[in-house]
């Protein structure tokens, strides 16, 4: 494979995610792009906090085919969609944090609007707390093909940056490399925690 270094970085990111408690009970999935046609995705059903490089399967970005015959993540179709939609995306992290899971249910609209927080600047291109950052929320579904089509349609109409929430399920985010995906994950999770606390205290 051509992306050994990024796969090594991704394995480290998975261990970090596990230590944070953001991938409980086999939840979550992670990937890196190899090139325009292939990515490496975590195998389905594994504890994501203790993955090794051997737990990642090569998957076709065009049609989700895994030549190994092993089963990549149940949410493979969302990772490959992101690689097709955004040529600059090279790493995707999906986590089940409590804040992402709960906040995406408490907020019943199609977007979580975040404003007023300095940590918005942890997100690529954000330069001020005065802006409003919309994070799309999609209703959860077990039909990943249908969900991917819905997200693709949304992305044709509205900007889809950094990541999105799946309602009652978790956060999927991405970056130009593993380091940026990690920064977006940590930044968004911090912002979700702040937003949760703000909503609780300002009631
Ligand atoms: C704990 S089951 C959760 C899964 O259905 C799914 O949402 C998930 O994130 C992990 O699925 P996986 O197939 O292991 O990548
Ligand atoms: Zn999930």
Question: Would you mind describing this structure in some detail?
Answer:
The chain is of the alpha+beta class. It has a single domain, classed as Class II aldolase/adducin N-terminal domain (L-fuculose-1-phosphate Aldolase). Helix content is 36%, strand content 21%. The protein has an eight-stranded mixed beta sheet with strand order 3-2-1-4-8-7-6-5, sandwiched between helices. α2 (76-85) runs parallel beside α4. The protein is globular. The mean pLDDT is 97. Bound molecules: 5-S-methyl-1-O-phosphono-5-thio-D-ribulose and zinc ion. 5-S-methyl-1-O-phosphono-5-thio-D-ribulose binds at residues 25-29, 42, 44-45, 73-75, 94.
Task: Give, in spatial order, the strands making up the sheet with the most strands.
Answer: 3-2-1-4-8-7-6-5
Beta-strand portion reads: 15-25%
Q: Which radius of gyration do the C-alpha atoms yield?
A: 16 Å
* Overall tally of structural domains: 1
List segments where confidence is low: pLDDT < 50 over at least 5 consecutive residues.
Answer: none
Task: Calculate the mean pLDDT score and round it.
Answer: 97
Per DSSP, the total helix count is: 5
| CATH topology category name | L-fuculose-1-phosphate Aldolase
Order of helices and strands: HEEEHEHEEHEEH
EC number: 4.2.1.109
Family: Belongs to the aldolase class II family. MtnB subfamily.
Pfam family, one: Aldolase_II
InterPro entries: Aldolase_class_II_sugar_metab, Aldolase_II/adducin_N, Aldolase_II/adducin_N_sf, MethylthioRu-1-P_deHdtase_MtnB
């Amino acid at each position: 494979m051509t992306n050994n270094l990024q796969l090594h970085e991704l394995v480290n990111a998975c261990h970090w995610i596990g230590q944070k408690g953001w991938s409980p009970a086999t939840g979550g999935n992670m990937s890196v792009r190899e090139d325009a046609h292939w990515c490496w995705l975590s195998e389905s059903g594994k504890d994501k906090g203790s993955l090794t490089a051997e737990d990642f399967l090569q998957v076709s970005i065009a049609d989700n085919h895994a030549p190994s015959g092993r089963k990549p993540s149940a949410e493979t179709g969302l990772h490959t969609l992101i690689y097709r939609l955004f040529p600059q995306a090279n790493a995707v992290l999906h986590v089940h944090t409590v804040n992402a899971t709960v906040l995406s249910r408490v907020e019943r609209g199609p977007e979580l609007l975040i404003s007023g927080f300095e940590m918005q600047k942890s997100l690529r291109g954000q330069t001020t707390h005065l802006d409003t950052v919309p994070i799309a929320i999609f209703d959860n579904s077990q039909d990943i093909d249908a969900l991917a089509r819905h997200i693709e349609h949304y992305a044709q109409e509205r900007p889809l940056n950094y990541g999105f929430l799946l309602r009652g399920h978790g956060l999927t985010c991405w970056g130009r490399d593993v380091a940026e995906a990690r920064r977006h994950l940590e930044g968004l999770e911090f912002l979700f925690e702040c937003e949760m606390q703000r909503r609780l205290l300002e009631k």
